[in-house]
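Posting this for the archive.
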Amino acid sequence: MGGERPHARRARHHAAGGPPPKFEALGSTKQILDVFDRNAKAARAALVKTPDAEFKKPWAFKVAGRTVDTSPKYTVYRRTVLNHLAHHRGQLTVYLRLNDAPVPAVYGPTADEPNF
């Protein structure tokens, strides 16, 4: 991000509604999994306490103060969270295969398993 233009940095900052996130330096697989598990638990708790009516309300995606898309919150959640996670899961399986690492059963058995 150091080489990005100032207007891009301002647009990113404004679109997010606040300052950019702070990332922890994680030095082990255990630390990564602990942070993931903690965040997944917090996300589940937030989803459980959010009434269905809230997900039907519109959410606006803005860039530099200009609305570029408005959709119900449930659509945004599906597109930007769930579909994005599936996308990265797919990227990970490709990365594992390219490095001759076994691919875990993500949605069921994989072609890497002997009884597939």
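The CA atoms of residues 109 and 115 lie 8 Å apart. The chain has two domains: 26-50, 57-116.
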